[in-house]
């Protein structure tokens, strides 16, 4: 009876702590959404921001956020995929491999402001790229690589060894076993990791303040020549993202409707991150059912 009583008390404490965490999360999300959703409209999502007058939107900042996200994934995913495959399938179990894994853990725990300062000193100043989209994308790559590499490695390591042995027993080479047998099975977990890391990158601000810049010059959406200064695709132009825009409004915003713009932008950012997380679960589960022929 004593053991059962202790078990019930421990279980109750665990449920109480989980409930507190859930309630705090719901309170924060509810507060942001209730204050911000009424200010969201199509005009707000597509019109450019205003610095001194009311009625501005977040169109340019929203585009910059997605553009930076795509560039970051294009740079970081091939590197993370190669590193994840090596660590999971090829790396021997020795001190070098352990050192690589420890390095990845250390990089994943670095504050984003440190990554931003590193990107500022190296890419903005030393390489003379200036405050630009490419500087921000490379800095976010350093920020994103540890999480993405670890996610890919875990997805590949979760594949049963029986699948590896089956591929090798059929005469497939190590590389073909990885690409034809292991990778397709691990694909749902890899896709989930990519989307979750995308949500983390999309909401990043500190690293971009020092690399992509805090200004939002006018973008000419009629000119898609990437070599023109005002083109949306020009990677050497400064780009204020949505998260940086929210920070800037709350620190130095002087437009009459600064509170409304900040609330609406914050709600859009929260909704985007929620969509990334829900999409990761949906796509991961869908791919898993398709690969395993489940219903």
TrEMBL record:
<keyword id="KW-0812">Transmembrane</keyword>
<feature type="transmembrane region" description="Helical">
    <location>
        <begin position="181"/>
        <end position="202"/>
    </location>
</feature>
<comment type="similarity">
    <text>Belongs to the binding-protein-dependent transport system permease family. CysTW subfamily.</text>
</comment>
<dbReference type="InterPro" id="IPR000515">
    <property type="entry name" value="MetI-like"/>
</dbReference>
<feature type="domain" description="ABC transmembrane type-1">
    <location>
        <begin position="62"/>
        <end position="280"/>
    </location>
</feature>
<feature type="transmembrane region" description="Helical">
    <location>
        <begin position="99"/>
        <end position="123"/>
    </location>
</feature>
<feature type="transmembrane region" description="Helical">
    <location>
        <begin position="261"/>
        <end position="280"/>
    </location>
</feature>
<dbReference type="GO" id="GO:0005315">
    <property type="term" value="F:phosphate transmembrane transporter activity"/>
</dbReference>
<keyword id="KW-0813">Transport</keyword>
<keyword id="KW-1133">Transmembrane helix</keyword>
<feature type="transmembrane region" description="Helical">
    <location>
        <begin position="12"/>
        <end position="34"/>
    </location>
</feature>
<dbReference type="InterPro" id="IPR005672">
    <property type="entry name" value="Phosphate_PstA"/>
</dbReference>
<protein>
    <recommendedName>
        <fullName>Phosphate transport system permease protein PstA</fullName>
    </recommendedName>
</protein>
<keyword id="KW-0472">Membrane</keyword>
<dbReference type="InterPro" id="IPR035906">
    <property type="entry name" value="MetI-like_sf"/>
</dbReference>
<feature type="transmembrane region" description="Helical">
    <location>
        <begin position="66"/>
        <end position="87"/>
    </location>
</feature>
<dbReference type="Pfam" id="PF00528">
    <property type="entry name" value="BPD_transp_1"/>
</dbReference>
<dbReference type="GO" id="GO:0035435">
    <property type="term" value="P:phosphate ion transmembrane transport"/>
</dbReference>
<keyword id="KW-1003">Cell membrane</keyword>
<feature type="transmembrane region" description="Helical">
    <location>
        <begin position="129"/>
        <end position="148"/>
    </location>
</feature>
<dbReference type="GO" id="GO:0005886">
    <property type="term" value="C:plasma membrane"/>
</dbReference>
């Amino acid at each position: 009876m004593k053991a059962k009583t202790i078990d019930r008390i421990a279980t109750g404490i665990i449920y109480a702590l989980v409930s507190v965490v859930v309630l705090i999360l719901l309170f924060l999300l509810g507060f942001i959404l209730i204050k911000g959703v009424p200010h969201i409209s199509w005009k707000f999502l597509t019109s450019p921001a205003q610095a001194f007058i009311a009625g501005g939107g977040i169109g340019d900042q929203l585009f910059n956020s997605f553009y930076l996200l795509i560039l970051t994934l294009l740079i970081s995913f091939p590197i993370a995929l190669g590193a994840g495959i090596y660590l999971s399938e090829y790396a021997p179990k020795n001190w070098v491999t352990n050192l690589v894994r420890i390095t990845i853990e250390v990089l994943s725990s670095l504050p984003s402001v440190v990554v931003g300062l590193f990107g500022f000193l190296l890419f903005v100043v030393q390489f003379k790229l200036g405050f630009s989209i490419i500087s921000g994308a490379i800095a976010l790559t350093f920020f994103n690589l540890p999480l993405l590499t670890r996610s890919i490695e875990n997805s590949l390591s979760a594949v049963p060894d029986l699948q590896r042995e089956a591929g090798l027993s059929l005469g497939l080479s190590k590389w073909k076993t990885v690409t034809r047998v292991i990778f397709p099975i691990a694909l749902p977990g890899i896709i989930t990791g990519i989307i979750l890391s995308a949500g983390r990158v999309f909401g990043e601000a500190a690293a971009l303040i020092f690399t992509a810049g805090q200004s939002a010059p006018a973008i000419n959406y009629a000119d898609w020549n990437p070599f023109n200064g005002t083109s949306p695709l020009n990677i050497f132009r400064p780009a204020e993202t949505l998260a940086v825009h929210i920070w800037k409004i709350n620190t130095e915003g002087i437009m009459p409707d600064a509170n409304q713009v900040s609330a609406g932008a914050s709600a859009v950012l929260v909704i985007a991150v929620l969509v990334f997380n829900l999409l990761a679960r949906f796509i991961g589960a869908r791919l898993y059912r398709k690969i395993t022929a489940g219903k």
